[in-house]
Design brief:
This protein is mainly alpha-helical and 66 residues long. The protein has helices at residues 7-34, 37-62. The chain has a domain at 19-62.
């Protein structure tokens, strides 16, 4: 029998997958723009956190199934 995940858990998994998919490309882009590895890593981390907060806010506005 397969375990059923609640919508919040599925949302979190989707967000984590998006971050994994685009993290390297985003890091490269930030490095090209900033020309500093530490600043680029900070920018990526900040982007990831902002994305999660934004997605959470949208989910609250429209319901957890989006």
């Amino acid at each position: 029998m397969e375990a059923v995940m609640d919508p919040d858990s599925l949302r979190d998994l989707r967000i984590e997958e998006l971050i994994r998919l685009y993290q390297v490309a985003l890091l490269r882009l930030c490095y090209v723009q900033l020309r500093d590895k530490a600043l680029a890593e900070d920018a990526v981390q900040e982007s990831n956190q902002s994305f999660q907060v934004c997605h959470f806010s949208v989910s609250l506005s429209y319901g957890s199934d989006h």
